[in-house]
Amino acid sequence: MLKAFYRCARFIGIGVMCIVFLSLPLLYVSAAETEKTAPQISLKTFDEDVAQSRRQMRAYCAIAQELMTDKVPDSAKQDAAVKYLKEAQVLWNEVRQKYQDNPPVEYSRDAKFKIRLAEISDAMDDMLVHLEAGRTKRSFQACGFACGLFVGMHEENNLVYALDRLFHLRKVIKAASAVNKNVGLEGVQKMLPDLLQKRDDVFMSPCPWPDDTKNCQEYVKALKNLSFELDNFALAVTKRNNKEASEILNSLLELCNTVYGLAL
User: Fold this and answer.
1) Residue 143 buriedness (CB in 10 A; 0-12 / 13-18 / 19+)
2) Region 160-264: CATH code
């Protein structure tokens, strides 16, 4: 009787082991399928979330630039700038919470990704501190620094955006304006190859609105207008037509800002 019991228990044990052994492949398949079906973070979604914050930040930057040149303090403008900046901060905090530990695959090898998001947040904090303290110029400079952080985040991960290349073009236009005031067109002429190359780089980047025909057309139209004036500027400098070159140069920054706004 006892031997029969042990024999029965032995068979039951072997049966259980077989069931466990046969179930292992199914468990592995299930785990693999779960891994495959895990939601992937889309770069497009990430970019749009980032753009929402940047749009508010740009609205603040535009007002801050006006405040720097205003001879009389404007409290209404100041309040509007603070409002836009705080909205940008809220949106950026949402970006950090959503992506800092789960970036798009394009950033998966970027060991500094989480740090980059924090640095941009710190730059926004600096903007607000200086703005509220009445140090508008310092606040605006922090805005420019933050824009550079966005550009670096993209370029150091081999991502190409028209907005980033417009950032570089705008910097050269600003530098050319400063050189023209201090040195004259002879100094500007040396900058023409870099200026035109930066323009070409923008043309070689994809339209910021690939899924929106209307916005893409408006962007391209504004970019062509900027490019046309850049060509006219280069010709005027080459012909040493100081008056015409200076007039065109004074309009280039506004034209570039228009394209920049359409790209964002």
Assistant:
1) buried
2) 1.20.120
